[in-house]
Design goal:
Length: about 300
Amino acid sequence: MNSSTLWWTDWQYRDGIVSVRSTGQKLPVKGKFLWVCFNWFVYYLCMEAWRTASIARKGPRVAFLPHRPRPWYFIWPALHAAGGRIVSDPEHADIVVYFEDATRADGRVAPTGRATLNFGCTDVTKTRVNTVFEQVFGYPLRADPETGTDPVVEKSEINGAHDGRVRNAPFTPVAGSVYQRLIDNRIDADRVEDFRCLVIGGKIPFGFLKRRPVERRFMNFNCEVKLTETDDWLLPGELEKLETFASSMNLDWGALDVLRDRNDGRIYVVDVNKTNIDPPIALSLRDKLSATRRAAKLIRAIADG
């Protein structure tokens, strides 16, 4: 991704398909996609107003290595809502963020003398998520498709692919795929629910409760999203476990996708995103702005030390 180009050049259209150059994700141009674009664009206009206003405000200076974020990454509107601005030279920054939208990366040496975010978070593969989850929570997420007899979820390692599918074990695993137990996160016969926990400065201040039809459980289109306090969804002790998990992943900024199994009552972290695209489209504009302002306040706190 070339940070010097206009952000819309990251998108390529061909034969009714829009492709994201940096990630390879393909999005069919249909009615729902156009609705998503319109919904996001209204929020984007608010972000641009914040960005313009930040020019005259004295807020935190933030540098990104090796790439600058585009407007759809949550850190972009949050830093501008904080009155901050992006600077090219880390030596002139109050906060330096390691920002690379890649599932596995080589990483960089964190600069000293200023706040840094995500410099240790270089591996968010599903394999890594499975391993760290079991270490922190003490019970497994990974599944063995060759020896098990229960349904399992087959996914690629790639972050944000939304390519999960349910398969009935036993079967021979596919090379390059990862297998997790199928979490029964249904809240009724027709809908599933998950909780996207935002990680800001290593803490989880709030999240987004997302619901979608069960037949679209692995897709990124939600029918309902609510801005949710952690105490309203998590049980005692779970927040501390999730923050320990984030720390073990070296995740200072990003999001955890958490499911609760309605059979055993336990929570499971099924995905980690260090370059999260938030707030979710289906969230109301009022709550989008509220979430962004709350994140902005925490960015200012990080800059202030």
